[in-house]
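[DERIVE STRUCTURE TOKENS]
===
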Amino acid sequence: MKISDNDRAQVLAQALPYIQKYAGKTIVVKYGGNAMINEDLKTAMMNDIVLMQSVGIHVVLVHGGGPEINRMLEQVGKESRFIQGMRYTDQETMDIVQMVLCGKVNKELVKHLERCRGKALGLCGLDGGMIRAKKLDSGVDLGFVGEILEVNTKIITDSLESGYVPIIATVAGGHGGVSYNINADIAAARIAAELGAKKLILMTDIRGLLRDKDDESTLIPVVNVSDVPKLQRQGIISGGMIPKIDCCVEAVRRGVGRAHILDGRIPHSILIELFSDEGIGTMLY
């Protein structure tokens, strides 16, 4: 489809006040799902981040890597186990998680962003004592799954001030040199709060919060955190959406300006949400 010069000008004019609003501010993006697997979507995402960086937005990218971990476990003949939606992480699995997330996935994302002419620095929670954790006490033994105790943001802010996009793998350090596997949504929310970020964006494989989970036309574009308990009682917030909404609520209550749940299957969804009047996902405030 050919876009007229007038339409291009209208898009830029609409984006300008948002660019001015977010210039110099920090936005934390949790990256995962199809947007991370599909090469076309990955390239679109990296170009979006480079654009945001180019207009003066400080972007922090926090990533998962579940499919890559699953593949590596399969290669070594080890079965993936999940309890209450979380990966059971024994010592062998933890070694693989650290190798895959902090090594292969993290550095491939750095490479991809730099191919799109951005500046990236690959990090994990172990670097500079960034994320300190203890064993998660959830009532069941999940092995080396961690609960965040503190986030030291200095290495992140130093990277941003030097003009880099920090790309962070969510492996944390604990007492006695133990490493812990941290849920990427939870880590992104906590990092956003500690940075005083303007926004937290969770990239997912659904449109956002839906009144009817089987009907994307029932998207709820805006949610006040005070309405979340009611939406949970009504069953509108259910299943896998519960932990994502909980992360957003926690981030907002800790001082993050807005939290967004976006569909990473839509190319440039992050730009549509940030730089247009309409938006595209669900925003919590």
Q: What stands out?
A: The two ends are 36 Å apart (CA to CA).
